Amino acid sequence: LSSVLQRGRLSSQDKDAARFASSLEQDKRIGRATVLTNEAHVAALVKAGIIGRTEGRKLARVLKRLEDHLPYEREVEDVHVLIEEEVSRILGARIGGVLHTAKSRNDQVSTAIRMVLRMELLQLSNQILHFVAELVRESRKYRKSFFVGYTHLQPAQPLTFSHYLLAIGDSLLRDSKRTIEVIARVNLSPMGAGALAGSSFKLDRNYVARLLGFKGLVENSLDAVASRDFVLESLAACTILALDLSRISQDLIFYSSADVALVTLPDEFASTSTIMPQKKNPDVLEVIRARCARVTTNFSTAVTTVHALPTGYNLDFQELTPLLWDSMDTLQSSLRVLIRLISRLSLNGGRMKVGVELIAATEVANTLVRAGGFPFRQAHRAVGRAVRVALESGVSLGDLRKEQWESFLEAELNPRVLEQVAKASDLKSSFHGYKTRGSPNPEEVDRMRRARVREIALALRSNKHAETKITHSIRELNRITASF
Amino acid sequence: LSSVLQRGRLSSQDKDAARFASSLEQDKRIGRATVLTNEAHVAALVKAGIIGRTEGRKLARVLKRLEDHLPYEREVEDVHVLIEEEVSRILGARIGGVLHTAKSRNDQVSTAIRMVLRMELLQLSNQILHFVAELVRESRKYRKSFFVGYTHLQPAQPLTFSHYLLAIGDSLLRDSKRTIEVIARVNLSPMGAGALAGSSFKLDRNYVARLLGFKGLVENSLDAVASRDFVLESLAACTILALDLSRISQDLIFYSSADVALVTLPDEFASTSTIMPQKKNPDVLEVIRARCARVTTNFSTAVTTVHALPTGYNLDFQELTPLLWDSMDTLQSSLRVLIRLISRLSLNGGRMKVGVELIAATEVANTLVRAGGFPFRQAHRAVGRAVRVALESGVSLGDLRKEQWESFLEAELNPRVLEQVAKASDLKSSFHGYKTRGSPNPEEVDRMRRARVREIALALRSNKHAETKITHSIRELNRITASF
Amino acid sequence: LSSVLQRGRLSSQDKDAARFASSLEQDKRIGRATVLTNEAHVAALVKAGIIGRTEGRKLARVLKRLEDHLPYEREVEDVHVLIEEEVSRILGARIGGVLHTAKSRNDQVSTAIRMVLRMELLQLSNQILHFVAELVRESRKYRKSFFVGYTHLQPAQPLTFSHYLLAIGDSLLRDSKRTIEVIARVNLSPMGAGALAGSSFKLDRNYVARLLGFKGLVENSLDAVASRDFVLESLAACTILALDLSRISQDLIFYSSADVALVTLPDEFASTSTIMPQKKNPDVLEVIRARCARVTTNFSTAVTTVHALPTGYNLDFQELTPLLWDSMDTLQSSLRVLIRLISRLSLNGGRMKVGVELIAATEVANTLVRAGGFPFRQAHRAVGRAVRVALESGVSLGDLRKEQWESFLEAELNPRVLEQVAKASDLKSSFHGYKTRGSPNPEEVDRMRRARVREIALALRSNKHAETKITHSIRELNRITASF
Amino acid sequence: LSSVLQRGRLSSQDKDAARFASSLEQDKRIGRATVLTNEAHVAALVKAGIIGRTEGRKLARVLKRLEDHLPYEREVEDVHVLIEEEVSRILGARIGGVLHTAKSRNDQVSTAIRMVLRMELLQLSNQILHFVAELVRESRKYRKSFFVGYTHLQPAQPLTFSHYLLAIGDSLLRDSKRTIEVIARVNLSPMGAGALAGSSFKLDRNYVARLLGFKGLVENSLDAVASRDFVLESLAACTILALDLSRISQDLIFYSSADVALVTLPDEFASTSTIMPQKKNPDVLEVIRARCARVTTNFSTAVTTVHALPTGYNLDFQELTPLLWDSMDTLQSSLRVLIRLISRLSLNGGRMKVGVELIAATEVANTLVRAGGFPFRQAHRAVGRAVRVALESGVSLGDLRKEQWESFLEAELNPRVLEQVAKASDLKSSFHGYKTRGSPNPEEVDRMRRARVREIALALRSNKHAETKITHSIRELNRITASF
After folding, report:
1. What is the per-residue pLDDT for D3?
2. Which one of A95, B322, C122, D317 has the lowest number of neighbouring Cβ atoms within 10 Å?
3. Which residue of A has its CA nearest to B11?
4. Contact C283 D315 (CB under 8 A)
């Protein structure tokens, strides 16, 4: 449908087929970056003497205007053709026809995607860091708030809610790190690779890269246009983050279910049923959980698309880009919702349920080891028997009598030890007894919290720095093209 | 955000969270079906005497008007609430408030999806059948057109293009069958299952089902709202179809590549490069190939979403529906493009390439068996050696001398057999010699072609019949509600 | 490495590469079926007069012996070559070399996989049916056993455990149907399609098909060797079944968690912790849940493998077969464990938890509609407010006073209605009031249970019939080859 | 089935269920690492004074012996229980029962997986680097060997084979980097996190970490046992590498197909057909392509398994570990085969096919720009027309006459420019004209090759260094436990 490519090799395209294959709608997201890429290319053409300063000036001015005003309503196949067509419409075919010298859509599109993606990754990292900051902030409130730790969806050991929030936070900090590490390979310039073989025009690829804020080149020209591992590893980082968000959602859905009732969701983030008046459903969390599933399969889509594709640009690549933006948008909006939800959660003091209070068992066994001198395995077995009896007779571990313990242990028990056992079965203060690094006792949690505050600040600063470098480069590009 | 559910159990929702979780945009596709579901429900309420004819008439009239005029611009969470709100706005809370008696969004949404899906599946089947019809029609032209059959991407044996087209057609006929088989489980009514437990109002579920054109019920009320296997098997059928379309695309990309040059793509379905003037790229086919990858992972998304979800309605289900429509739309548009592309393909008579012409080898070996009485394995080994020598000396199998053959065979060769060997290495007519059922000889291909024409006609008629039954039911529903 | 294919076209293979690509290990599962395929082929060669009865007899006898005694320790690439080599070793190259006349590994391997797969699918269906039979049997015990129905993991409405078990059963019956439907396309014979083009020997493909117990042919010879949709749809059926099993596992994990405590897992199907003596972990169910995830991605592996493969046999196909067996084995072993686990479950009478008992709310609202004449939406809102107050003041719905209800309803309330409201909030008998088809009242559940018993018996009989037909065919094959 | 856990909380396990859920078979891979973990734990128990030196010595000696001699034939659920049982069997319950003090399977298993995985990742990186080294070495031979560069599977521009090999190499170098980056998060110690809450015994987690060669801790105890992102990111790195290997396989399958015939596969890495004697099938490459699909879905399996799992150890994790080893083994074996295959490839000088030789077109257009002063778009259109005419009349671009060019250009053409155009259409030397960084001209390729040699050496050295540090730590552990 575009005029620039017509009447050469092929007769005109079938309209429906062209619409079917067109990427213009989805190119909007890389429109501005593509114009900037053209500007940097013009600067390089001028520098290399391939075009004159006058031509350069004319091209640069029109491009500058197009940065935010591309006429997407045109029916052309993609943004690259749209830009060249628009430039030719304004400046005439003589000057406009020069724009594509020594470049190709293949290097351009990879360049533009990378330019947008590096910023999205930085923003995603920032958003993760803000979420962790919120978790850390909230965790201050819950330093001594008893919480049930689960394994196998069964109550396991006493924690504090603070410790839980920091555990989640730590996993998200790794997500942020992965996100940032990816940028090192995203932020390299393919420009100048042409269609696959570079060019017989002597263009300075490093100059273009610098003007566009890249850290270096994807050097080999074939590799530069034919590789999409930068998309895949971005989607992989998104996938792992999505899994962490789905886990948080799952946790909160479970913790807030009427049976468990450890936390209460804020009304504003729940909804009721049209038929069951008592319902308070965790709608938002379920939607996050399900959307995160889609983020994970965006990666799978990319994998299936790329698997066994031959080396070289293939138009299949076009279908990868929307996956990136969909993953980014879904994660950012999920994070936005979660940040606000987490700050309005409330913790239920909570009546302790029969089976749940038995989570004191490990500490009771440890006490038998420490105070009673029993081997751990013997203590473990004895407490296991005690649990059985406690469940059958509906009493708690602290209520069991000396004779009972002695029969469980198949050994005698010092009454002093029995006292300590009773103390160890008091759940609400038990987490104070944890001594190892990283455990839920409040002093250790405080220490970790303070360390995370510093870590987050450092990471945000480093992200800011990376952003600034990029915007400075673009400013330099503007300065140069304005000077022609 | 909706008013019907406010001021009961929960305080009002967070606007952003509500927007985030809202399904209204994607509900558009089931809007009309949801209104019809409401109409059938009203009919059942009247029949059961739960509401009077007057109330029934008022509700039915407003609903009738809403069928194609739902105000989607409202900010509510979904189409169910939208309808109830709109009915209440027009008829007042007293009558509008009656509409949701004995029903739930849970049974309604599954009902509406099934109503739309059964039609989409029928249309998809029709479109597949039209594509196969086109393949069958095209195959008439190519009854005696030599074509290279490949295995392992290496030239294997001579076929005709007709035979290839019918092979593709047969795999697509199975896709059509799968699509239709799924309908048997899709076209069952969950209505009346309520939220999960049915209702204490005595509603006639079969009556509702009949009015909505269903073949029967998803009987168990919990199963009716909690199961989404009908979505999964629809997506699975789509996935396998997508793989078949990706295969066809791959074939045509390969057959039309300049090296292979068996077919020529129509110019209108190809595009050139912005930099390489000689290029004729199979853009449209590459896009189909890549979009088909997404169809396959729509299934994976549904799998990951549903895996380990507890029994009962969960809002995660909401995210499955768009996957269905995306797969349907992608397949339908891909089929539309392929139907037109296939009818404009042209076959290259083609110069035979050196390695390619060796595909006569199997027939040469068979000849040595039949005419020469050699065991197949011995003949096979001899021809293998002949191929080596032919490749090294750049001659064809028919050019090899008696002495050479005798050394390959490690046996004497009757000159009469040698003649037949020479004949067997003539590629262009070789496919005439195939004798087994389903093989590429033109008579057998003709027979198959005629059988497929009949099969397609039958299948289209059966689909038409299924459609008619559904539209008749809806007409009956309209008649009944109009009669109140 | 094999001798039959050496010294022809290629010099000998690299040992490591050959081992890497060899499928012999995984061919064991299709070994017997491949021998049978050879026997049927010999019968057809004799029938067509391509070989004599004497040769036929010799070949048949050796093959018969090999049926269960293939020497898998040989180092050859696959079972096809193994068989030919072994036959040639015993009968000499002259007769052994005849065996491969007019056939190919391509048609043979697809034939053998289909032979094994059809039996596995029948067995899988049987196993599903046995599981449903167990669910139905168990459900008799729990006709009047109150159970909590959940949506969004929140208590929703009262059910019976019987109704829950039948809901699961119904979804599994659909799995069985899907499994059986697939067989219609699996149980077709590719034999005689050769490598892709049939054969110039006049073989009777229908004869071979009949002897091997097939219902018909995959007719088009290219389609017959190049299509693997039968593998994909088998894996798709497995995937949906796997999701149903993962759902059951998830349910039981949740229902048996100490917080929820609706059911108690049998000790023998749980395990404890090495450190936490009180733990009773649902290990087996977690493993089923996770293995089911692998079953679902076996399908994805097949999808990614097949996507964009060109038409024709490609060795990639070899990697699909183990996915089939892995899915079959995982599902069968999971079903075996679940059948025994379900029969040993015990239901907890259970103390009702505060939030949970509010599931009477829907019935209370319905009562306000039926007895009080309020529009449902008004009743729904009133009960919503009642729930809030009940939760805040820790009372149950039945305890609320007339004035409170009147303020919730913003209307007067007849004392008679108030009595009915109190009755409606009695949970334990509530399910008796459900009247719609498929709902949990015991009479309706009894009716469904009896219907399912008949359905299962019918399905098992039909499967038995299908098996018998196949074994009769194979017996006929044995009779014929023995008669040479 | 194990005795250590029996007779406590639960009655004994169902044998089949226990076998079903047992991980002992797959634990073999982490057996040695688990024993070492126990040794380090004993060292820490001694250091903390929780057990005496005498007990420590006894335990350490037995463990030392078990390092390579675990009795896997025992029927127990996993390697952790196996070790404790074996130690208790030898030393008696009194001392053996001490071993599990202050630790859990949850922290142990994650520790052991990480210990094995870090080494596997290092080895995988080494193997990748060796493959790239081979590519770089081979590329020396082909500095001036004309090769066809493809886009969209259509001949695009002339490259050298050397340039192609280096392009592949560069993408693999990024794979190696990703593999190494993952280690930073893998090589952290969870030991001391216990089941999820750390311990009330004062153990020095950093001491244990150091003795086991870790760089640091997974600090938060809940995070340490509940997170598997280290598995996911390892599998993600494997997935992207698998896609690169599938791409190389796809390339070689295409380049070696008889139609394209750019390269010849070594006979030893191909196989023939049992029926078609001329076939030379790229079996090994197809198997790599298909196995790489499985590597990618190993990641998907992990995703589906982990999606929406609640925080805490769940036995589902057990099923993740085999995915890791399967991916590692598949990639390592594929790389081993590819390294040897690549070194035996031969390049075909090759007769140029009609459509293929038109890849000179871009350079012809560039020449019209440089020498003729035409705008690129005009030149591009003119060459497009020239291509059409050349294809129709079967001549090459260099054969077209001045008048023809002038009509294509719609402008006059200087005869001097015509000469240059003719020169530009000479393919075999064209790549010498490329001037940009990263392009295929031999000087630039030489420069890149030398740089890669240095990069590889550096990376291998760094990997060596990391390995050494780990083995030194383990030696220190041995020294300490021997000193008790």
Report:
1. 62
2. B322
3. A267
4. yes
C-alpha closest to that of B282 among B162, B240, B290: B290
pLDDT tens per residue, range D116-172 = 999 999 999 999 999 999 999 999 999 999 999 999 999 999 999 999 999 999 999
* pLDDT lower than 70: segments of chain B: 1-7, 350-351
Own/partner pairs, A463-468, CB within 8 angstroms, 24+ separation: A463/A122, A463/A125, A463/A126, A463/A129, A463/A180, A466/A122, A466/A183, A467/A119, A467/A122
Nearest by CB to A278, which of C258, C282, C387?
Answer: C387
List Cβ neighbours of A92 (8 Å cut-off, separation of 6 or more): none
Task: Determine contact, residues B348/C204, Cβ cutoff 8 Å.
Answer: no
Q: Which residue of A has its CA nearest to C387?
A: A278
Residues of C that are catalytic: 152, 273
Å from B245 to nearest chain D CA?
18
Q: What is the pTM of this model?
A: 0.97
ipTM attached to this prediction = 0.96
Question: B345 and B164 in contact (C-beta within 8 Å)?
Answer: no
The pLDDT of residue D349 is 73
Facing residue for D8 by CB, picked from A175, A381, A431: A381
Told to judge if B152 belongs to the known catalytic residues of this protein, a careful annotator would answer yes
pLDDT below 70 — which residues of chain A?
A: 1-7, 350-351
How far is the alpha carbon of C361 from chain A, nearest alpha carbon, in Å? Answer: 6
Residue A205, CA distances (Å) to A103, A214, A219 in order = 11, 11, 9
Tell me A413's DSSP state. Answer: -
Q: Which of B348-357, C445-454, D55-64 has the lowest mean pLDDT?
A: B348-357
Token duo for residue B16:
């952003």
- The number of residues making up chain D comes to 484
- Cβ <8 Å between C282 and A154: yes
Distance, in Å, from the CA atom of B25 to the CA atom of B72, rounded to the nearest integer, reads 8
Annotation marks residue B380 as catalytic: no
- Asked whether A15 and B268 are in contact (CB, 8 A), the reply is no
Determine the longest span between alpha carbons in chain C, in angstroms: 103
Whether residue A41 contacts residue A193, with contact meaning beta carbons closer than 8 Å, is answered with: no
Q: Which region holds residue A316: left if phi is over 0, alpha if psi is between -120 and 50, else beta?
A: alpha
Pairing of strands A154-160, A146-151: antiparallel
D362: contact with A, CB 8 A cutoff = yes
Q: How far apart are CA A37 and CA A112, in angstroms?
A: 7
Chain B residues lying within 8 Å of A280, measured CB to CB: 9-10
Tokens 């202050």 sit at which residue? D102
CA distances from B34 to B63, B110, C96, D369 (A): 10, 10, 68, 63
Instruction: Give the residue among C332, C233, C239 at the shortest CA–CA distance from C294.
Output: C239
C-beta atoms of C10 and D195 within 8 A: no
User: What single-letter DSSP state applies at residue C14?
Assistant: P
- Best residue in C305, C318, C320 for a mutation probing chain D (most D CBs within 10 Å): C305
Task: Please write down the long-range contacts of B248-252, taking CB distance under 8 Å and 24 or more positions apart.
Answer: B248/B168, B248/B338, B248/C311, B249/B282, B249/B285, B249/B286, B249/B288, B249/B289, B249/B292, B249/B338, B249/C308, B250/B289, B250/C308, B250/C309, B250/C310, B251/B168, B251/C310, B251/C311, B252/B282, B252/B285, B252/B341, B252/B345
- The answer to whether B261 faces chain D, any CB pair under 8 Å, is yes
Residue D430 has a pLDDT of 84
In 3D, which of C429, C417, C432 has the Cα closest to residue C379?
Answer: C417
Which residue in the list D152, D200, D307, D465 is annotated as catalytic?
A: D152
Selecting among D12, D257, D271, D273, the annotated active-site residue is D273
Q: D98 to chain A: which residues are within 8 Å by CB?
A: 375-377
- Phi first, then psi: give them for residue A155, nearest 5 degrees: -55, 135
For chain D, say whether A455 makes contact (Cβ under 8 Å).
no
Which of B153, B362, B387 is closest, CB to CB, to D275?
B362
